[in-house]
Design goal:
Elements (H helix, E strand, L loop, with lengths): L7 E5 L8 H13 L4 E4 L10 H8 L7 E7 L5 H14 L5 E5 L4 H7 L7 H20 L6 E4 L4 E3 L9 E2 L4 E2 L14 E5 L4 H9 L2 E4 L4 H17 L8 E9 L16 E3 L2 E5 L2 H13 L5 E6 L2 H18 L12 H5 L7 H5 L4
Parallel strand pairs: 1-2, 1-14, 2-3, 3-4, 4-9, 9-10, 10-11, 11-13, 11-14
Antiparallel strand pairs: 5-6, 7-8, 12-13
Helix pairs in contact: 1-2, 1-9, 2-3, 3-5, 5-6, 6-7, 8-9
């Protein structure tokens, strides 16, 4: 199975807030046993809880292969700090980091910071696009071999291989270079929810993985085709975009038949697709949609993480593996390798003919 046709699976490990690292570590290890591409950990300024990026930095040394993707809100945060934190996660996980970009639109969240008022979503997603672009430039601001560590001469860095990024966005400017060396993946994986609205353009321009919500394979295929078309208009290779259907799953009763939605698809919930049924029928749905070329995979959010993730891994994933629809081992060590994505060349090294 080629990288462009491989089935990709990911899962959310959040839920009600927990304040103990073993809870999240156990869920990530369970997902890793199922060879899922990555786990996400949602975060928001609108609710109490631990910082998702910090939690997954703690989970990193307790896992070996699975990708780790925290939600990072780009509103009210400094792009330089965001890029540094995500690069750090890539280093401590040895190349398994991503970040799920999100924005904060409410006045209540804005008042937590007191720095700026709430703004329309379209404006905030343009700012998120600027953050993604600034981050990519900062990750490239150290060439891969910028660290020389020459004890004899006392030179730690080849300063000719450090670069100012001089990025100017609508709401911030960044001079650079970064304070963290170039991440192992070059660029950690960028994930964006791009079902529609103002986030879709940012996703088409900057995301490696786009999460979408759909209730039929035809709808999913149409969204995927539009995202790929938009990506191409920005000069990107549309084959380098992974589109995953975001599906909330309730496997509480393994023998319950799935609740149908429009045209037999999963039932539509408040924020997207919702599936209630058994692990076998979930495997049937995933296999059918993927074989038809509608999607590159699924991002599954268990209603009850500890219960449903176990049934996803030991039921749904095991059946997909038995049918040779999903891998049984990780072919590489980085999240980009799991997703079949190339490591990006350094733009500054390319410009100077060193790549």
């Amino acid at each position: 199975m080629s990288a462009s046709t491989a089935l990709h699976l990911a899962a959310e490990i959040g839920g009600p807030p927990h304040y103990d690292a073993p809870h999240y570590t156990a869920l990530a290890q369970l997902a890793e046993r199922g060879t899922l591409d990555f786990v996400t950990l949602g975060d928001s300024f609108a609710r109490p809880g631990l910082d998702a990026l910090a939690v997954l930095s703690r989970v990193a040394p307790a896992t070996r292969r699975i990708g780790l993707v925290p939600t990072v809100t780009t509103t009210h945060t400094e792009p330089f700090h965001v890029s540094s934190a995500v690069a750090t996660l890539d280093w401590v996980s040895r190349g398994r980091a991503g970040w799920s970009a999100e924005v904060s639109t409410t006045g209540a969240e804005a008042r937590l910071f007191g720095r700026r008022p709430a703004a329309p979503a379209a404006e905030l997603w343009r700012e998120a696009a600027d953050t993604a672009e600034a981050g990519a430039r900062l990750w490239d601001s150290w060439e891969d071999d910028a660290e020389i560590r020459d004890v004899a001469t006392g030179r730690f860095i080849d300063r000719a291989k450090l670069h100012y990024v001089d990025f100017e966005g609508a709401t911030f400017t960044v001079r650079g270079p970064a304070i963290v060396p170039r991440p192992p993946q070059g660029h950690p994986v960028t994930v964006i929810d791009g079902t529609g609205g103002p986030s879709q353009d940012t996703a088409a321009r900057h995301a490696d993985v786009v999460l979408v919500r759909a209730t039929t394979p035809e709808q999913a295929a149409g969204i995927r085709a539009e995202l790929r078309r938009r990506a191409a208009t920005y000069g990107r290779d549309p084959d380098a975009l992974r589109v995953l259907v975001a599906l909330t799953v309730d496997l509480g009763d393994a023998e319950t038949a799935p609740e149908p939605g429009p045209e037999g698809g999963p039932r539509l919930a408040a924020r997207g697709s919702y599936y209630r049924g058994g692990p076998v029928d979930l495997a049937e749905l995933i296999g059918q949609w993927h074989r038809g070329g509608a999607v590159d995979g699924f991002h599954l959010t268990p209603i009850t993480p500890a219960r449903d993730l176990e049934r996803i891994v030991n039921g749904t994933v095991a059946l997909l593996q038995h049918r040779s629809l999903f891998r049984t081992f990780y072919p590489g060590g980085t999240l980009r390798e799991h997703l079949g994505l190339a490591r990006p060349a350094n733009r500054y090294a390319l410009a100077e003919g060193r790549a």
